[in-house]
Write a structure and sequence with these properties.
flat; mainly alpha; about 140 residues
Length: about 140
Amino acid sequence: MEYQITKILIISFFSSILISLFLNTKYIIFFKKFSKNKKFLLNFSIYSFSFLTLTFINYFLSLNGLTSLIIFNAAIITLIYFELALYLEKVFWDDFLGNSLPKSINMLISFVVMMNFGYFTLMFYVKILDINYFIS
């Protein structure tokens, strides 16, 4: 596998961004308490910690094979985008559509949108790792 460390760093970079986004939306009330500089420092520390952790985990999983690496990252993507779909339904669609649709339709729209994001993120990871298979 060529450039294994570079590929792992790219995947860890994007997964860390997703984790930071997830924590900012999940704990928005907590983050509103801080000033802009402290919020930046807190986000940077969360990003750095998650980046280092994911880099080590992804490296050790890549020693077992690319299948375990892609399944681990697919699990992370699924959990994050599922939670972001719930947040999207609560915050965005009600305001955007003006409460004209029932909650179940809003939930369906947000799940479809976020699962498409998850699918394309997973395909991006597959393209970076240059995998032609999922399970061998």
